[in-house]
Amino acid sequence: MAATAAPRGTPASPDRSSAGYDEEGQPLAEYGGLLAAFATILSVGAVAARRQGRLPERVRAHDIVLGGVATHKLARLVAKDKVTSVVRAPFTRREEETGPTEVEEQPRGHGLRYVVGELLLCPFCLAQWMAAAYVFGLVFAPRITRLVAAMMAVVGLSDFLQVAYKAAENRRQG
């Protein structure tokens, strides 16, 4: 019986502890690489903040709310917007338009290319990376970080109002 290539990632070798995890050939090693990169960035940032005496005792509630709204908008912008498709293009394949400013795409390739494509298409996944950038921005460059976050939060609020307006318009017409 001939083995077929899995559509994603690199199949696990029999001696790996993840062998038998699934039948689809999930690119677990590449996922692990992304996790390691994220953990390394967080660790290096936290150590640098501590060494420079910048590690905050606490984060203010308004910074959390501002960061949450800005992170949501920025992650969605990177993952779905037509204009940012130039960032995703090396890792994804365009499928169709899904709204006035958004496109549906699928990851392409194998291994790391595929996993990066998955990351870039998932606003939930990107949000962790965006939130880390925001938090470290607050630590190392708070003024510009709050300014950019405020801009993204205003755009997010505007998007919400555009959708609400369109829904109200549709209800009135039909």
Explain what you see:
The chain contains 6 helices and 2 strands. By secondary structure, the protein is mainly alpha-helical. It has one domain. The protein has a two-stranded antiparallel ribbon with strand order 1-2. The N terminus is likely disordered.
Shape type: flat
Q: What is the chain-wise order of helices and strands?
A: HHHEEHHH
Could you give the distance between the termini?
A: 58 Å
Helix content estimate: 55-70%
Query: Got a strand count?
Result: 2
Strand order, sheet with most strands: 1-2
**Measured on Cα atoms, how large is the radius of gyration?**
20 Å
Give the helix tally: 6
Structural class: mainly alpha
Question: What is the makeup of the main sheet?
Answer: 2 strands, antiparallel
What fraction of the residues are assigned to beta strands by DSSP?
5-15%
Return the average pLDDT rounded to an integer: 90
The low-confidence runs, each spanning 5 or more residues with pLDDT under 50, are: 1-6, 10-15
Tally of structural domains: 1
What is the element layout, followed by pairings?
Layout: H1 28-51, H2 61-80, H3 85-88, E1 92-97, E2 103-107, H4 111-121, H5 123-140, H6 142-173
Antiparallel strand pairs: 1-2
Any key phrases for this structure?
single chain; mainly alpha; two-stranded antiparallel ribbon; 2 strands; 63% helix; flat; disordered N terminus
Concise synopsis of the structure shown:
This protein is mainly α.
